[in-house]
Amino acid sequence: MAKVSAVNRNAKRANMAQRDKAKRTALKNIIMDRSLPVEERFDASLKLAELPRNGSRVRVRLRCELSGRPRANYRKFKLSRVALRDLASAGQIPGMVKSSW
């Protein structure tokens, strides 16, 4: 089980990223638009830098929904390999069977 503080910190980052998504996208579009004057683009880059770092989507870590484990996660299930194996062995995931040959 992961530390509760790490899971909460990651959830806070996810909320901030969702909240700031529109602002960041608008500022990035201004920065990338070559038809605008350089001063306007520079001001947009300064405003983007003033936004909180934790509001960026890349700061959010994929964690297991059950255990909070930060590594070895399957995106499709949002579960770690350990939790996925336990649920699959118990028959909780439809269509997934233990391999044998």
From TrEMBL:
SUPFAM superfamilies from the UniProt entry: Glucocorticoid receptor-like (DNA-binding domain)
Organism of this sequence: Neoasaia chiangmaiensis
Family to which the UniProt record says this protein belongs: Belongs to the universal ribosomal protein uS14 family.
MF annotations from Gene Ontology: rRNA binding; structural constituent of ribosome
Lineage: Bacteria, Pseudomonadati, Pseudomonadota, Alphaproteobacteria, Acetobacterales
Cellular component annotations (GO), alphabetically ordered: cytoplasm; small ribosomal subunit
Keywords, ordered alphabetically: Ribonucleoprotein, Ribosomal protein, RNA-binding, rRNA-binding
Residues spanning the membrane: none
UniProt cross-references to Gene3D superfamilies, sorted A to Z: 1.10.287.1480
Pfam families (UniProt xref): Ribosomal_S14
NCBIfam families: PRK08881.1
Encoding gene, per UniProt annotation: rpsN
Role noted for this protein: Binds 16S rRNA, required for the assembly of 30S particles and may also be responsible for determining the conformation of the 16S rRNA at the A site.
Gene Ontology biological-process entries: translation
InterPro entries: Ribosomal_uS14 (IPR001209), Ribosomal_uS14_bac/plastid (IPR023036), Ribosomal_uS14_CS (IPR018271)
Protein name: Small ribosomal subunit protein uS14
Subunit structure: Part of the 30S ribosomal subunit. Contacts proteins S3 and S10.
